[in-house]
Amino acid sequence: MHVLLIEDDRSVASYIQQGLLDNGYQVTVEADGSRGLAVAREANFDIAIIDRMLPGLDGLSIIQSLRDAGNNLPALILSALGDVDDRVAGLRAGGDDYLVKPFAFVELLARLEALLRRPAASAQETRLRVADLEMDLLAHRVTRAGEVIALQPREYKLLEYLMRHAGQVVTRSMLLENVWDYHFDPQTNVIDVHVSRLRQKIDKGFDQPLLVTVRGAGYMLSADEESR
Question: Which of 1, 7, 62, 176 is deepest in the core (most CB within 10 A)?
Fold first, then answer.
């Protein structure tokens, strides 16, 4: 996978570049917004990581220019601006995700993996499956080993997000943004409570647990013991 990183802070750029290289990614780094936009237009990349504040041209303008030209390159915005309004502005400008500085590299990597999976999703997809756990998106029905599992609306949305990112670490911030839409105090334990309830419903009584907590990182839905 080839990543375009547009970041003018040399220490941050070096940190991200080395982490991505260590994880098997190819990385092209640009420090100027105008140059970054030109490179994005000229070359084929799988995903872009774009700082919001850049010399030459700011990150949101880069993304908007790409979108106006019909370029759907997945873009993860990096920014020290973390208010809800700032995040919303970034997403409305065409960004696919928004990560606030400072951040842990494991979260950056998890978000990249989530974005890179999106093109593989079919518009006609009607079922999600992880091992013997199945979600029928049309019937709004969840079963495990053929046994119907009754879920509350928020539990269903949480499980759908986890199933769409099966085998990947999903951070609390990702759940906050994609399942709760920022509409609660992030300092509360609402995520932990819902994950615990969901785990009881989909794992209790079954030999193989699917929903696990990845210490210090987040959660993962997976049937593969080695990926945990």
Answer: 62
Burial class (CB in 10 A: 0-12, 13-18, 19+), 171: buried
The SS3 assignment for 211 reads strand
According to DSSP, residue 197 is labeled H
- Element spanning 123, H or E: none
- pLDDT tens-digit map of 75-96: 999 999 878 888 888 888 889 9
Residue 63 CB coordination number (10 Å): 25
Rounded to a whole number of angstroms, the CA Rg of the chain reads 19
**Residue 30, strand partner residues:** 6
Q: Kindly give the residue spans of alpha helices, DSSP state H, lying in the chain.
A: 10-22, 33-42, 59-68, 84-92, 105-117, 153-164, 172-178, 190-203
As a whole number of angstroms, the distance between CA 23 and CA 212 comes to: 23
Give the whole-angstrom CA distance, residue 173 versus residue 195.
14
Task: State the residue for tokens 């599992």.
Answer: 149
DSSP 140: T
Q: How far apart are CA 33 and CA 6, in angstroms?
A: 7
Joined together, the tokens standing for residue 194 give: 């819902």
Work out the angle at residue 92's Cα, subtended by the Cα atoms of residues 127 and 76, and round it to the nearest 5 degrees.
70
User: What's residue 182's pLDDT?
Assistant: 65
Domains in the chain (CATH in brackets) are 2-120 (3.40.50.2300), 127-227 (1.10.10.10)
pLDDT, tens digit (0-9, with 9 covering 90-100), for 140-150: 999 999 999 99
Q: For residue 74, give the DSSP letter.
A: -
